Amino acid sequence: MLAELTNVTKSYQSGSVTVPVLNGISLNIAEGETVAITGPSGCGKSTLLNLLGALDQADSGEIRVAGRDLTKLDTQQLAEFRNTTVGFVFQLHHLLPQCTVLENVLVPSIVRKGADRAALRARAAQLLEAVGLSHRLDHRPGQLSGGERQRAAVARALINSPKLLLADEPTGALDRASAERLADLLAEVHQREKITIVMVTHAPELARRMGRVLPLLDGRLSAV
Ligand SMILES: Nc1ncnc2c1ncn2[C@@H]1O[C@H](COP(=O)(O)OP(=O)(O)O)[C@@H](O)[C@H]1O
Ligand SMILES: [Mg+2]
User: Which of 12, 18, 55, 217 to mutate to test the pocket of ligand 1 (most atoms within 8 A of CB)?
Assistant: First the structure.
C-alpha cells in the first residue's frame, strides 16, 4: 500500500468550541491508484488531503505514506517528506510571479543537496514539454493563461519525482476546456510517471476519470 489511514480524526478549535471535521477515516491506497475525494464545500476534503501530504497533523489515528508513519517524523523529516515523497497542486497555482516558468518548476528542487543541476534543468524542460509548455519556458506566470499556469504547477509538482500527487480542486478556477485539458494531462502523467494520484474535486466528470471515487460525508468516507 502506498498510503494507509487508520481511524484518523481531526477537529479544529473555534474559540472555545471544538469542531470535528474527520471522524474516523480509514483508507488504503495502492501504489499507482488514482482516487477522487468528493463532497460538499466544508466537509473536510482539503483537511484530509493536507494530512496525507503532512501539511497538517491528525488528532488521532495512524497515517502511513510510502512506508513512513507520519506521526513519528520530526520536523526535518516532515519537510523532506513533503518535498520529495509528495507533489502538490492547489486550486490556485502559487507560481512565483518574478520567476520564469522554468525557474518555478525548479523551485522544489532547490533544497536538494548535491543534486545535478543540469539534469534537473533538463527534467524541468522535459516536464514542461510534456504539459505543452515548451514554448513558454522563459515566460513569467503573468504571461500565461489560467490553464497554462495550472499545467506549469503540475510540472513543478513532479520535479522531484514524488510517489504521490495530491491535487486540491486543481480545475476549480478553470474554464471547462482548460479543465478538460488538465484532466487529460493528469491521466498522461499517471501513465508515464506511474504515480499515485489523490484528487479533491467538485466536478463529477473529473472525479469519474479517477479509478475510485470516495465521497466524504459527515467526516467519513464511503465507497461508490
Ligand atoms: N485552520 C482551520 N481552523 C479552523 N477551522 C478550519 C480550518 N481549516 C478548515 N476549517 C474548517 O474545517 C471544515 C473543513 O474544511 P476543509 O477541509 O477546508 O473543507 P473542504 O476542503 O471540503 O471545503 C470547514 O468547516 C472549515 O471551516
Ligand atoms: Mg477545500
Answer: 12
